[in-house]
Each structure stands twice: as structure tokens, then as C-alpha cells.
Amino acid sequence: MDAGRAGPIRPSWRARLWSWLRPVDPYRSVKAALGALVIASVAITTFLIFVAFHSAIELRVIAVFAVIASLLVAQFVAHGLVAPLDELTDAARGMAGGDYSRRVRFDRRDELGQLGTTFNRMAADLESVDRHRKELVANVSHELRTPIAGLRAVLENVVDGVSDPDPETMRTALRQTERLSGLVTHLLDLSRLDHGVVPLRARRFEVWPYLANVLKEANMSKGPGHSRTDVHLHLDVSPPELVAHADVERLHQVVANLIDNAVKHSPPHGRVTVRARPGEQPQSLELEVHDEGPGIPQGDRDRVFERFSRVSGADSAQDGGTGLGLAIASWAVDLHGGRIVVAESTRGCRMRVTLPGPGKTGD
Q1: Are the CB atoms for 219 and 233 separated by under 8 Å?
Q2: What is the model's pLDDT at position 16?
Q3: Above 60 in pLDDT, residue 67?
Q4: How far apart are CA 252 and CA 189, in angstroms?
């Protein structure tokens, strides 16, 4: 038989039999457990009545024993059903009080076991959300406090007459103001990211003039207020007539953030290369931003795309980074249905972006 024409594998008769019997398995169904309770009670009562008819024991005594036995069976089954619910209630009360580390331990295979598994998954998600919320507040507070404190110190020195409002002092104040502006812009982008309100307007465009304009803006931003004016930006597009299909505004965010990050971590008089090549599909694009800096350690390559992440040894006070640029770049690439990774490189850091072209982008 041709393997390419083989139909779906059908379950064996044993698997089908177990699937039919599952609703009546007392270990996998609360309804079946209650049914088993009724059957057991009726069986015990019938057995005792049968014993009464074939012995000298009075029927009233047999009835008393039947009631006691039924109550014991009912108590045993009820305890098995109620105990997990009590544990679930205690855990829910703890979570209502802010303790998201609570978990339930149900060693069951029935609906209550499934409920416990779902509850634990929900608790883990809430714990993660709460942890990210606390980290976001702490990180944003830290990121805002640093440039505000620097700007305040500069202005206090000018007001108190300690320093003159000369161009160098004003450039220092401008740097702190630009850092504040960049952080607010990134936070607004993250807000749009979380609420899913950013539409994707993909279109066909020529890669060379587009990237040349992005690099021109990056060079213009390396003015007196920028701490790195010695880094050379180089553009390499092959073939020169390369075209791609993407949202040019979102792609601008990606390239600008990658270039800014590469410039900050470049050595003195370093070189940052932006390389573009055609992808595997029509109008798809493979884009690389390569610097000559220290690179990213292997253990941090997945974490750098998280919000407010810091590469080992990085100093935000020196480079002015917010820890949001790569997170926003990753988000913009994901909108296209593409992929962004830290590629292998013998020197420096090589960030690789792959965009799939038309018909592959996200909504």
C-alpha cells in the first residue's frame, strides 16, 4: 500500500471498549461513583434481607444493620468527593487574599481531578501575571527615576549657580530628556502590544532606499545629544533591486531598535552592518544587524527578548537603555509571522530577522 495514501490510524477494539466504559468507571467519573454508591447500598440491603429470610434473625435487626451499612458506605464515598472540594475552597480563598502560590493536589482521574489540574494551571498563570506586574512597576519606577534624577541635578546646579547654562550643560539635560522620551514611547508601544490594538498594514516596498533612509535617520540621531558618534553604519543589500512585503512602520521599529542596541554596545570606532537578503519565499526578507561588540552570552540569548531584560554585565546607567527595545522588536516581528533570533557569530552580536512575505503575516 502507498504510504502517502494510508488513511488515519483507527484505535484498536480495546481502546474503543475502554472509551465506551469510561462513563461507568467510578475512578474516572463522579456520576459513576454515585451510581456505584446506590448499587452498593441496594446490594447490601438485599443481601441482609436474604440472610434474614434464611435465618432466625429478626427483620428489624436486619433493617438496622442495612441502614448502618448504607450510611457507612455513603460517608466513605461522600468524604472522597467533598475532601477535594474543601481543599479547592481553601486554595481559592488563599488566592483571593493574594497568595497565588497555592496549589491543590488531587490524586484522582475523574472530573474533580480535571478540575484540580485546571485550577493549578490557572493559579500558575495568575502567579506569572502578578510577578510580571510587580516587575513592571519596579522596573518602570527605576527607569523613570534615573533620568529624572539626572535632569533634576543638572537643573538644580544651573539654578544654584554651581554650573552655567552653557551648551555642554544643556546637552546633558537634553540626553536625560531624550531618555525619558524614549522610555515613554516604548511604554506606549507595550501598551498597544498588550491590548492588541496595532493593525498590520503590509505592502510591497524596495529594500535599499527604505533601509538607507532608516540608517540616515540613525546617523542624524547621533548628534550632540548622543553618547556614541564614532560608530560607522554600513548597509549591504543584495541584490540592489531587492523588494519585500511588510509593514514599513513596524519594520522601522525593528531596524531602529536593533541599530540603536548595536551602536550602544559597539567598541570605539566600531562598525555596525545592516545586511538584507531575499528569503525563501517571494518578497520574503532576511535581515541582519551585526556589530563588533562583546556579543550576547549563550545563556542570555533567549532572555534578551523579554521586557526589561539585561545582558550579563550590561549597565543601563551607561548605555541609557530601557530594556524594552528588543521586546518591541520581537513583538513587531511576531506580528508579521516572522522570527527574530541571536545568530551565531565569531565576533560581536548578529541579530537575524526573517519575514515571510505576503500571505504569511499575522492579522
Answers
A1: yes
A2: 58
A3: yes
A4: 13
All three cell numbers of 247, joined, read 509593514
pTM score of the predicted model? 0.53
More confident residue, 234 or 75: 234
- Over the range 146-179, which residues count as b (16 or more CB within 10 Å of their CB) and which as e? bbeebbeebeeebeeeeeeeeeeeeebbbbbbeb
pLDDT single digits (tens) 162-202: 888 888 888 878 877 877 887 777 677 767 666 666 677 88
Cell of 79: 468524604
Cis amide linkage into residue 282, ω under 30° from 0: no
User: Is pLDDT at 362 greater than 80 in this prediction?
Assistant: no
Would you state the cell numbers that stand for residue 252, as one nine-digit string?
522601522
pLDDT of the residue at 319: 47
Handedness of CA 272, 274, 280, 284 (dihedral sign): positive
Q: Which residues pair with 285 in a beta bridge?
A: 278, 355
Q: Where is average pLDDT lowest: 121-135, 147-161, 210-224, 251-265?
A: 210-224
**What grid cell was written down for 96?**
483571593
Predicted local confidence at residue 152, as pLDDT: 84
Task: Give CA–CA dist 46/96, Å, rounded.
Answer: 48
Helix or strand (DSSP H, E) at 343:
strand 339-343
| C-alpha distances out from residue 211 to 16, 249, 278, Å | 60, 12, 14
What's the number of CA atoms in the CB half-sphere (13 Å) around residue 119?
23
Determine the Cα–Cα distance for residues 145 and 139; give it in Å rounded to an integer.
10
List 81's β-bridge partners, or say none: none
Alpha helix ranges (H) inside the chain: 13-21, 30-53, 59-96, 111-159, 167-195, 207-221, 248-264, 316-319, 325-335
d(CA 64, CA 44): 12
* DSSP, res 183: H
